[in-house]
TrEMBL record:
It comes from Rhizobium phaseoli. It comes from the Bacteria. InterPro entries: Class_I_gatase-like. This is Uncharacterized protein. SUPFAM superfamilies: Class I glutamine amidotransferase-like.
Length: 432
């Protein structure tokens, strides 16, 4: 089923149901407007889309029945991106020929050798965004360069092109055609160059089409307690502003769809009204399903969202049980905070005193409890949706994070670091 897109401005992504394709879409969904199952193509009008992407890892037979529709989109002025390894003979491009072949040594990257590819001369403008290192892994054959085409990447010695641009087809259409397979390997979390390719390519495609997308910089602090340090924490606006966020403050009982529609990341501090928040569960879930992010500080007694679980305290003796340890900092949240980030005026246990069970698929970030039986103090999770567009939840099972750290090299940086990580996950700068 296709998602809605702005007519004339959207980018569509055709998939075959392959997990690698879907994971790559999920990674770079910020730059894509519609996810279209290839067998649904007869029911979809492609004409509103400024570009249509057909990623690699497609079953070769799946595209054939839809060749007339895809060629018609090109002839009517559409912009088609195809990453199929020699199985695109259904494209109506006169003189286009594919030759099978691949790199001389599949393990070239383990030996410090250069891959036998080079940028075509003169360099295509896309290479200002995608350098050679972003296009170097292997390929699935090569194409000739027919009349009207421009080569972007070629095999040394001029024996074929791996990436072609047809900038001005009859009818005003445009085709980008590659024998590279970035979506499949990025989706497999294998070959970092493929991730670099997609991180460069999708922003380039949006710029090429004149599409501007908000960066997700709207941060809202939900004011839940009238204690001054909780109502408007000192330093919060400065730390978030330094990270590029526009910070707003809103009283708890103003939480509604209108407020949620004006923010990208909502922070809920630890002292809050569980009954009221439960009354807003439907709105909060809708916010997550549409890509909004939640940062929650809580020790739930009556869990107020369906994925939340009751809080459990760890035994406070020995005191080392309540010393927080970093388990997984793949998102760079804690790396610059100093070893004592969890201290508040020298008191262990204020940052976190226990844990909640995370939902399936969550990433466990920090430990609390004994060394032989650690529990998840902080975890992060993506809200699941059929299209992979769900936002992220950072669950902190403890005190208000605006208090940390009170010492160390970066005061008041914890919450800003979390917000930056969620923003990067939402735009594909980090992968979940």
């Amino acid at each position: 089923m296709a998602d809605a897109a702005t007519p004339g401005k959207g980018i569509a992504y055709i998939h075959w149901g392959n997990s690698w394709q879907l994971r790559s879409f999920q990674d770079f969904r910020h730059y894509i407007d519609a996810l279209i199952y290839i067998h649904d193509l007869p029911k979809v009008d492609l004409s509103p889309y400024a570009a249509v992407v057909m990623p690699d890892a497609m079953d070769t037979a799946a595209a054939l029945p839809h060749a007339p529709q895809l060629n018609a989109y090109l002839k009517d002025g559409g912009f088609l991106v195809v990453c199929l390894q020699g199985h695109a003979d259904w494209l109506d491009i006169p003189g286009l020929e594919w030759t099978p072949g691949n790199c001389r040594d599949w393990l070239w990257w383990t030996k410090g050798e250069k891959l036998e590819v080079r940028l075509s001369e003169p360099h295509h403008p896309i290479t200002e965004s995608l350098p050679l290192s972003h296009m170097s892994w292997h390929w699935g054959g090569s194409y000739n360069v027919p009349e009207g085409a421009r080569s972007i990447l070629e095999i040394d010695g001029g024996s074929g092109s791996l990436f072609l641009d047809f900038p001005s087809l009859p009818g005003g259409g445009r085709l980008l055609l590659a024998t590279l397979d970035p979506h499949s390997h990025n989706g497999q979390r294998f070959m970092p160059a493929t991730t670099r390719f997609l991180r460069s390519f999708y922003p380039w495609l949006n710029r090429e089409l004149g599409i501007e997308r908000p960066a997700g910089n709207r941060f809202t602090y939900l004011q839940c307690s009238h204690v001054p340090s909780e109502w408007h924490p000192d330093g919060l606006e400065d730390s978030l502003g330094g990270a590029g966020f526009e910070t707003s403050f809103a009283p708890l009982h103003q939480l509604d769809p209108e407020l949620l529609g004006k923010t990208d990341t909502l922070y809920i501090p630890s002292s809050h009204d569980e009954f009221f928040l439960k009354s807003q569960a439907e709105n909060l879930i809708r916010f997550l399903s549409q890509g909004g992010n939640l940062i929650i500080a809580a020790e739930p007694c009556q869990p107020w969202l369906p994925f939340m679980a009751p809080f459990h305290a760890v035994p406070p003796r020995p005191f080392t049980n309540i010393k927080v340890r970093i388990r997984d900092d793949r998102f760079g949240i804690f790396s610059d905070l100093g070893e004592g980030f969890d201290g508040w005026k020298g008191v262990f246990g204020q940052y976190v005193r226990g844990w909640t069970d995370p939902p399936p698929g969550a990433i466990w970030l920090t430990d609390i409890g004994s060394e032989h039986d650690p529990k998840p103090a902080d975890w992060i999770w993506q809200y699941p949706t059929p299209t992979g567009r769900g936002g992220y939840v950072f669950m902190h099972n403890g005190d208000n994070m605006t208090r940390y750290p009170d010492h160390g090299p970066k005061k008041e940086a914890l919450l800003a670091n979390i917000a930056v990580a969620l923003r990067k996950l939402s735009t594909g700068e980090l992968l979940f």
